[in-house]
C-alpha cells in the first residue's frame, strides 16, 4: 500500500468516526484500528489529533466540492438553467454527501467555542462554501425581478444555512431524504421568484 493510500484510509476512517462519535469521542487508537494502520503510521502523517482533524476537513471539503462542481449542470450554457441544474445536482447527491452529517457543522458545534485554530478554519471554510453557492446561484438573482431575491452573497449564505439545517434534521430523524426535500423547496421558491412554473 502506498503512502497516499494509507493517508487516505486514515482520513476516511477519521471522518467516519468523527461524524458518528464527534471529534471529542474519537481517539487516535480508534482511527488507527478502523483504518487498519499503526499508530506509527498516524504520527508519520500527522503531528497531533488536531492536525488530523484539520486535514480531514480540507480533504472532505475538496472531495465534496469536486462532486458538486462536476455535475451535469457544468455543461449547461444558459446561466439560469445552469443554476437550476446545480440545485438539481445538489438534490441528487445530497444523501451521498451528507447522509452521515456534515463535518464542518460537527466541528462548529463541538469545537468552535473552545479551539481558536479550528474555529478560524471552520469559519473560513463556511465562507468558501457560501461563496461557491453564491457564484452558482448568482444568475437567479440577475434574472429575478428587482427586490424579489437578496443579493447573490446573501442567497448563497441562505442556501448554506438551509442545507446545514436539513443535514442536522436528516441526522436527527435518521432520514437523509430531508436534504432532498429542503433543496426542492428552495428550488421552488427560486422558480416562484422568477415567475416560472413550479
Automatic annotation (TrEMBL):
A Pfam family the protein falls into: TetR_N
Stretches that traverse the bilayer: none
Keyword Endoplasmic reticulum applies: no
Keyword Translocase: no
Protein name: TetR/AcrR family transcriptional regulator
Domain HTH tetR-type: start-end pairs: 4-64
Organism domain of life: Bacteria
PANTHER family recorded: HTH-TYPE TRANSCRIPTIONAL REPRESSOR NEMR, TRANSCRIPTIONAL REGULATORY PROTEIN
Lineage: Bacteria, Pseudomonadati, Verrucomicrobiota, Verrucomicrobiia, Verrucomicrobiales
Keyword tags: DNA-binding, Transcription, Transcription regulation
Family matches, as InterPro entries: DNA-bd_HTH_TetR-type_CS (IPR023772), Homeodomain-like_sf (IPR009057), HTH_TetR (IPR001647), Tet_transcr_reg_TetR-rel_C_sf (IPR036271), YxaF_TetR_C (IPR054156)
DNA-binding region per Swiss-Prot/TrEMBL record: 27-46
